[in-house]
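Follow-up to my earlier ticket, as requested here are the two runs.
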Amino acid sequence: MKYLKLICSSTMAFALALVVASCGGDDASPTNSGGPKDEGTGYVSDALSPDQQKQQLESTANELLNKVSAADFNEISNIAHYVDQNYLRNSAKKEALESWWDAAMKATEIETSGDVIKRLYLASNFVGAFEYQNGEWVKTRNGGDDLVFTFPYNSGTCVATVKASGETYQVHHEELDTHKYTYGYDYSKRITYENRIGVPQYVTVTLINGGKTLISVNVKTYVKSGTEISLSSDIAEVTVNATVADYTINVSQAKFTGGSGVTASFEIKKNSEMLVKATATANGSFSDKGKLLKAGKMDVDADVLGKVQLRGTISNFDTMKSYLEVADENRTNETEYKSALDNANKQLNIGVYYNYSDTKMSYLQFAPYKKSDYSGERWYREEVICFRDGSSYNTVENFFDNTGFKAVKKRFDNLITNFGNLFKF
């Protein structure tokens, strides 16, 4: 899984570098990488010069940052903080909630055998209605088919609802299990909670404030599995349609097929305007515990504001992985390291496009660099964007450095910080 995470994180770094922390102007000069070729189709088009591309990237990055603001979620954040401070901090206020929760958890216990307690978490265990009245939570309904919380906020009323429906897929995997240890003077005891999940086919979550819907999330899940999940052969599909404040997030397909691979497709809109959309597929097989056993072709197709696209293929993931491993084993041997990295790059054919053009303007590669320490020189790799003129831009050091392109980087850092502060309790 280490190399699967590497590719995912690298692709994300590429995309962020292209559309969020992109460069421009005279803040930095390109570093020469020796003019690497795009092994898939030869040299890329020079329809746009590197400087023109950097201007396009910077313009797109700033436009995206202008459209996305943590302040758009202030109302939801303020409600969350208000509830935490006023309705959940005092144990006496939430006695009814705690009693309900204890009973619901007790209802999940379906069998006890020795030191093993089997639990089955069903949505039907966690239903009811609560209202905050006269300084405390009051249960206003037992049972039903949903869970509802009603509480006052800013002279109005907020209603939060969670509802499950459709089929229930009962699944279990040892990774879901938890353990509790008890110790005495001369003994220790481990209790295993075998946690089985009743995955509902449909889940709907809403938050309404004064008649205005702030959150609406609809999740559809399909699981083809026995009661014991086998990640080597089972299938799971999830679709999500969510509206949060002014944003719409749609996951039109997230499919895991243990015997053949993973597919995911999503889009993010604000006020009906498309901000980001992407699709990725990876062919491969997994062990029962989810370890990646074999991986072949991987495809990625991402778009930002219709102005910058990232499209391409890793021809064979296993082949690229093996060459990257060879490189890692030869960090002190420049010739062997560079040779292995060149072979890994032959599997990587991911290009940068603009305005839905079919003309590839630049492309992505791994590039070698060296560091010296007390033990001598060692070679490492970094992700770079390569241009026709033989120059390249390091997507980490150039796009995310603290001296070049300060304005865009600072805006991006502030956005991340602001999002992190929204729900800090």
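Run two:
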Amino acid sequence: MKANIILTTCVIVLFAFVVFVLGCFFWIIHKTEQIQLYPLTAIVMEFDYDNDLVTCIDGADNFWSFHGVEDWHMGDFVSMIMSDNGTPTIYDDVILQTEYAGYF
């Protein structure tokens, strides 16, 4: 009788563990499918040399900042690869990569 209870308990714990792992797996896959990347071009507008921060503005008047002032000049075009973080709003989007795209 005692062995039967232990076996039943082990099966329940194992089943719960498998359900938890599969749930985490499918949640991760679902979350990563929703994140989209998109390109964005902006113009360099301002430098913060103390914090090594470049601030630029895009065509919709949104300001974006990234690190690395040493390679940029005022008026440079910057092409950015952006991540939308899986949300519809742009205010939490993240700059993943920046590239020089010319001078205005």
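The only thing I checked on run two: Residues 50 and 69 are 10 Å apart (CA to CA). Let me know what else you need.
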